[in-house]
Predict the structure.
Amino acid sequence: MTTVLYRGPQLPLEWMAAHGLPLAPLLLHPGGGATGHAGMCPPAEALLREAGAFDGALVVLAGACDQIRRAAANVAAGSSRDTLFLFHVPATRGPAATRFYRDECLRLSRFLVRWGGTVPALDAVPAPLTDTRTPRHGPGVPIAVVGGPLLAGHEELYAAIERFGGAVAADGIEGGERTRPRFPTDAPFRDLLDAVIAARFDAIPDVFHRPNDALCDWLSECVTERGIRGLLCVSYTWCDLWRVEQRHLAAAVELPAFFLELDGETCLSVRTLTRIEAFLESIS
């Protein structure tokens, strides 16, 4: 049975799972050096570099930024098989955006059925899926971390924070609590797809949203409720969305902030680790 590799919490994972094909997160790896293409972030470069390893699998990507959309187009152009699906995620909110997202879900359904999936029953009860990290609430200086997806190996960031006396009290990096789907237990839904849209498209705050008040509100609520004392913002080279918005987030919560920019290194450099240690010392 064909496996579906996916990347992006904005994807309707429960809707995808209802088609009966096995799902697995798409792990991308750093290239071990500086970014080689101007205007392309390390995750997008990794997608181009590792595309040859996707043979035999379907790939579904959330098109929420220009870099990933550009890389997906290049991968699709270089393949003779129509096995990559780019799911266009609206940046705005409202009835028109919701209809567009629903139409993308139906377009995705036709793609999955064409590759052996079954048409899902719309009256089915959604089975919430999550591949988010387990919250880490250890002792130490409570901080919030925010950012997009991390490449494989860069999650050592969490261990480094703990080693230097910090504690991640709010995980706003993609794959953390911020991007967990929110299925209301008391709200009636028209059908399965309606429930998934509410839990993912409507509920997950993200940096590319316009306006992005929901992201600021989520972070502000975490700061107020959890006694957070500092903000660590993680972005990759050429990620314009996070580079701009992280400063707005820091201003909104009025906390000491450290802006960490990563490149294509296979692990966190000594310089990066030293800067993290210095930041935690300054707010302890």
Summary: Residues 4-114 form a domain with the Rossmann fold fold (CATH 3.40.50.11890). Strands lie at 4-7, 23-25, 58-63, 84-88, 141-147, 166-173, 230-236, 257-262.
